[in-house]
């Protein structure tokens, strides 16, 4: 609590969406075959491979890094990660190329990986391969939608290759093998449409349903769910494979029930009215010169200067969800909502911890102040959709373990897992220094701790 001492201190809709997308998907494939105009995305999709070069891609083999997982790569320092990416890119250039609008791998080398991570999405792609080749499509960095030689001569019938490609091969339970055989002969193009929502995956292969809304297991740690976000990867495994028409449509993650306000209050039990209790119990620290707390509204005003100024709590929180109404006004105003701040660094000048940034450029960015800096940026188009300038904005933040999610006015702006980030700490609000004028107001703050699962 804030203490103020002398310094004041989804059902039918989903089916409809999939049916509509399937029709668009089929029409796009047919049109491309007839006109020869490939690598042009259908409406609502974005191009992952532009048909010209490898822009937007990196090289990454998570299983070859010490620790053998995406988490191990995330735990690398920025310097170590940069060196790894540089090394991997040299390998990419040896084994991956672009020929006549086709993305070509010689069967060897590092896996081609999107530079961006994705959460829920629909992925379209064409591929063709050769005899005895083996490959796969990794979703959120996890193996895999299987691609292989399904003939007896391919030598993998003991591993059920005769059942066909398209299954979630690394699942130990449901979905390991495709529902039907749908592979085309060598030399012909095969088409995938893969939908991933939450932990579940649906795969259409050459127009046939081969995986039906199956939970994808986390190959790297089967005791935990699959990663909430991660890259798309193309596996290399012994034979030439070609890709084209690689498109993606991101599916927005909707606000959960606990993120909804009803009559100005969150739904469910266990919520604490934060500022109201802080005002009554006197718990936290602010500077009287810059901050006031009156009738449940915390207000900060700053005409600019060399230092930042903060209001922060004394109580620490680990996993939590929090609602807050925040309004920022002023010339070139800039601020930030901080959480999991190291109490040892909490002062009226500089602190270390997470920050959801607010300002002309970094609205909605997640930063690890005093750590690795920018963790996830928010696009200008998303900011325009989410933010009400000079007005009240509803922030809903969920921090559970390494997974950080933030919605502003119901629009998700942060969705990232960051193992290098802080695990617990205090909350803080910032008045940013510099040549600017900032007035920041916060009210209707409700917080609910999340119990750690054992």
TrEMBL record:
It holds the Pfam family 3keto-disac_hyd. Residues 44-249, 262-447 form the 3-keto-alpha-glucoside-1,2-lyase/3-keto-2-hydroxy-glucal hydratase domain. Coiled coil: none annotated. InterPro entries: AL/BT2_dom. One of its GO terms (molecular function) is hydrolase activity. This is 3-keto-alpha-glucoside-1,2-lyase/3-keto-2-hydroxy-glucal hydratase domain-containing protein. It comes from hydrothermal vent metagenome.
């Amino acid at each position: 609590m804030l203490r103020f001492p002398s310094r004041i201190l989804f059902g039918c809709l989903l089916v409809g969406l999939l049916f509509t997308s399937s029709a668009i998907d089929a029409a796009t494939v047919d049109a491309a075959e007839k006109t020869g105009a490939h690598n042009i995305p259908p409406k609502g999709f974005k191009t992952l491979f532009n048909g010209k070069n490898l822009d937007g891609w990196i090289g990454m083999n998570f299983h070859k890094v010490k620790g053998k997982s995406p988490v191990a790569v995330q735990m690398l320092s920025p310097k170590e990660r940069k060196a790894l990416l540089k090394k991997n890119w040299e390998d990419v250039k040896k084994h991956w190329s672009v020929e006549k609008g086709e993305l070509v791998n010689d069967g060897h080398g590092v896996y081609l990986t999107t530079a961006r991570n994705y959460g829920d999405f629909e992925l379209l792609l064409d591929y063709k391969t050769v005899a005895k080749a083996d490959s796969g499509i990794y979703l959120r960095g996890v193996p895999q939608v299987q691609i292989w030689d399904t003939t007896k001569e391919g030598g993998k019938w003991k591993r059920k290759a005769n059942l066909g490609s398209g299954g979630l091969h690394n699942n130990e339970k449901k979905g390991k093998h495709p529902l039907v055989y749908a592979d085309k002969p060598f030399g012909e193009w095969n088409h995938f449409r893969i939908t991933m929502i939450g932990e579940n995956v649906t795969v259409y292969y050459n127009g046939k349903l081969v995986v039906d809304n199956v939970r994808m297991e986390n190959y790297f740690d089967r005791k935990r769910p699959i990663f909430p976000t991660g890259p798309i990867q193309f596996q290399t495994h012994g034979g030439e494979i070609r890709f084209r028409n690689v498109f993606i449509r991101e599916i927005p993650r909707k606000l959960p029930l606990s993120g909804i306000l009803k009559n100005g209050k969150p739904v469910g039990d266990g919520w604490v009215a934060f500022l109201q209790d802080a005002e009554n119990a006197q718990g936290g620290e602010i500077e009287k010169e810059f901050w006031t707390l009156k009738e449940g509204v915390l207000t900060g005003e700053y005409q600019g200067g060399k230092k930042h100024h903060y209001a922060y709590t004394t109580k620490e929180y680990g996993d939590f969800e929090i609602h807050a109404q925040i309004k920022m006004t002023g010339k070139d105003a800039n601020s930030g909502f901080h959480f999991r701040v190291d109490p040892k660094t909490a002062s009226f000048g500089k602190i270390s911890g997470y920050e959801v940034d607010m300002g002309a450029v970094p609205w909605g960015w997640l930063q690890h102040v005093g750590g690795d800096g920018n963790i996830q940026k928010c696009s200008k188009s998303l900011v325009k959709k989410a933010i009400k300038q000079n007005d009240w904005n509803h922030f809903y933040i969920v921090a559970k373990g390494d997974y950080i999610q933030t919605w502003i006015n119901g629009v998700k702006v942060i969705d990232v897992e960051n193992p290098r980030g802080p695990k617990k700490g205090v909350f803080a609000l910032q008045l940013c220094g510099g040549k600017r004028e900032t007035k920041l107001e916060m009210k209707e703050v409700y917080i609910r701790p999340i119990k750690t699962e054992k």
